[in-house]
Amino acid sequence: MELGINFGYICSDSGDRLLETIIDRAKYAKELGFTALDFSTNIYRDDWRERAYAFRELADRNGIHVHQTHLPFNRYNRARSHEEFLPYVSRALEVASILGAKYSVVHADEYRLPKGEEYDVKRAGNFIYDYLAPIVEDAKRFGVGIAVEDLFEDFTYGKPRSRYTSTMDELLGIIERFNDEAVSCCWDFGHAQVAYGTEGAFEAFKMAFPYITCTHVHDNYYDKDLHLPPFMGNLDWASHMKYMRENGYKGNFTYEFVYGKMPPEILHEYLIFVKKIADYLFTL
């Protein structure tokens, strides 16, 4: 397995940060052993396309490999309609193609529970399929695979539930409904533990395994999405790693750290630490 990390944790691509600085940080990650970056450039800048091409040129020159990107999601931005939002998703797919990413990860949870109505699985599934269908076609046009991420219920739009793909039936249902090799699964280990608990997470992982092409690796406890390094939470890493090895997993193994920031003075030591954790995981 190739080890990756979400690049935003190391160096945020925002504001007027120089591309040369970004490349330097990418080289730094590669030297530490993180060779498959999860990287997305800022699609809200006016020069988003030019910047993506410039990064790709510098990345190729320095042997930097972008394995996957993450598509923007609109679940928590209620002010923007889907019609206004989808062009930004298309931009992100074009950027993924420019960067040479093999997959773009998507949250299939844009269904809004109508006020005063109960959650309806069939209605939500039909909405999500119709929402994703043009995204999948756009991705295929750009030569990028769509990897649907497993999620957990966050009750943003009401109880008892409103978030599609927070159950295995829904996650596998939407992937199988497309029945297209361009649509796969990004397995988020931490999300699965929040959704199903420690024992249930491993059973869910085995169900999704035939569709998994890329990953988000992190740990948690107390049913909270904490994005901690492995072994700092309750996930059963030994069972997961053994199953991946015995069943010939061919995808990447990519850390996703999203909360907090290590000060520059100790970031180097922290990244060496999480690299050692990955090295140990690969022996299990």
Structure, briefly:
With 284 residues, this protein is α/β, with parallel strands linked by helices. The protein is built from eight helices and eight strands. It has helices at residues 19-32, 48-61, 82-99, 121-142, 168-178, 189-208, 237-246, 264-281; strands spanning 2-6, 36-38, 66-70, 103-106, 145-149, 183-188, 212-216, 252-255.
Keywords, separated by commas or semicolons:
single chain; about 280 residues; alpha/beta; TIM Barrel; eight-stranded parallel beta sheet
Account of the protein in words:
The protein has 8 helices and 8 strands, in the order βαβαβαβαβαβαβαβα. The chain has 284 residues and is an alpha/beta fold. The chain has a single domain, classed as Divalent-metal-dependent TIM barrel enzymes (TIM Barrel), CATH 3.20.20. It has an 8-stranded parallel β-sheet. Strand 1 (2-6), helix 1 (19-32) and strand 2 form a beta-alpha-beta unit. The relative contact order is 0.13.
The span between the termini is: 13 Å
Specify the number of helices: 8
Mass-distribution shape = globular
Major sheet: size, sense and barrel closure? 8 strands, parallel
Mean pLDDT: 92
Rg from Cα: 18 Å
In the CATH hierarchy, what is the architecture at level 2?
A: Alpha-Beta Barrel
- Extract low-pLDDT stretches: none
Describe the secondary structure blueprint for this structure:
Elements (H helix, E strand, L loop, with lengths): L1 E5 L12 H14 L3 E3 L9 H14 L4 E5 L11 H18 L3 E4 L14 H22 L2 E5 L18 H11 L4 E6 H20 L3 E5 L20 H10 L5 E4 L8 H18 L3
Parallel strand pairs: 1-2, 1-8, 2-3, 3-4, 4-5, 5-6, 6-7
Helix pairs in contact: 1-2, 2-3, 3-4, 4-5
